[in-house]
């Protein structure tokens, strides 16, 4: 990457979205209306605006320059050192990015808090993929894990996500990050599942603390992640496991069971690798070649389903 760039970074290979060229709307300091326990940035008091906002033309110039010299990445990802929807010129930026994106898809990673702001919503609708976070569906857990700016209500956010889904034609991905002893209880997850079913995203990504977090919190192990994933039955769930997250007990299924299981839930190739024993994997390959199982792609991630 050219060092003259101020707003773009990468590309980085993301397991969830493919090769990603990043845009940072707040390169100088963290600007977020949350202060999540698990944040990979430093802890910081939540704020509701980005100071010294960049000019969209300066960002687009960098993206354009990068694209003229390199292959198109799978996604051009709008992030901030914090929350990208606090950027007041998002609408202008996405219009300009869409004109130059070529074969890349535009993606935004948002915490979902501004989903009821009509201007933000108009801008979000223009992205090919929108990722919103939902770490809790009850106010108490939401405040504990995401530490939002005062006055932000999770009920309003969920209602906003439900209505956004109805208007938005692109791929909506919901991300649930599970932190040990904070939002891993069955009752807490059940409420998230209930909300997720009403929101009806194209995909749900479930993950846990990975890189060193802002506060002293801990990941859940891979087995727990898969137990939680099972609770989201009927939705496309992608589990982002940790390399050191403990081994998952391998599951054996015969062909009939595979069809039944894969009817209820789609699995990504990496989930199949982690979850099933060798004979089951061979059965899955056989069923794919017989067209009894099929591949399909949601927001750049490949799933297998019956
Ligand atoms: S929403 Fe994202 S950037 Fe903001 S505090 Fe949480 S993890 Fe960090």
From TrEMBL:
Keyword terms of this UniProt record: 4Fe-4S, Iron, Iron-sulfur, Metal-binding, S-adenosyl-L-methionine
Necessary cofactors: [4Fe-4S] cluster
InterPro entries according to UniProt: Aldolase_TIM, Elp3/MiaA/NifB-like_rSAM, GTPase_Obg, rSAM, rSAM_sf
MF GO annotations: 4 iron, 4 sulfur cluster binding; catalytic activity; metal ion binding
Keyword hit for Protein biosynthesis: no
SMART domains (UniProt xref): Elp3 (SM00729)
Transmembrane annotation, as ranges: none
Domain Radical SAM core: 15-247
Record's protein name: MoaA/NifB/PqqE family protein
Lineage: Bacteria, Pseudomonadati, Aquificota, Aquificia, Aquificales
């Amino acid at each position: 990457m050219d060092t003259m760039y101020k707003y773009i970074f990468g590309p980085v290979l993301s397991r969830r979205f493919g090769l990603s060229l990043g845009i940072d709307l707040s390169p100088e300091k963290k600007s977020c209306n949350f202060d999540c326990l698990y944040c990979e940035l430093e802890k910081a008091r939540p704020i509701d605006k980005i100071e010294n906002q960049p000019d969209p033309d300066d960002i687009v110039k960098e993206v354009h320059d990068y694209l003229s010299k390199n292959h198109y990445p799978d996604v051009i990802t709008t992030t901030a050192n914090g929350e990208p929807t606090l950027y007041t010129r998002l609408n202008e930026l996405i219009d300009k990015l869409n004109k130059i994106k070529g074969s890349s898809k535009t993606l935004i990673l948002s915490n979902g808090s501004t989903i009821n702001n009509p201007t933000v919503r108009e801008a979000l609708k223009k992205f090919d993929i929108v990722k919103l976070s939902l770490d809790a569906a009850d106010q108490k857990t939401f405040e504990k894990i995401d530490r939002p700016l005062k006055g932000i209500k999770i009920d309003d956010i969920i209602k906003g996500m439900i209505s956004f889904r109805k208007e938005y034609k692109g791929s909506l991905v919901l991300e649930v990050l599970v932190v040990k002893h904070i939002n891993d209880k069955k009752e807490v997850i059940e409420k998230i599942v209930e909300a997720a079913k009403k929101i009806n995203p194209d995909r749900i990504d479930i993950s846990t603390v990975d890189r060193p977090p802002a506060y002293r919190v801990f990941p859940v192990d891979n087995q727990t992640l898969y137990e939680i994933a099972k609770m989201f039955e009927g939705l496309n769930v992608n589990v982002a496991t940790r390399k050191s997250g403990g081994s998952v007990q391998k599951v054996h299924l015969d062909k009939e069971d595979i069809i039944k299981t894969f009817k209820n839930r789609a699995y990504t190739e990496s989930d199949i690798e982690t979850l099933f024993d060798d004979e089951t994997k061979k059965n899955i390959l056989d069923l794919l070649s017989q067209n009894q199982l099929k591949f399909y792609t949601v927001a750049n991630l490949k799933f297998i389903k019956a």
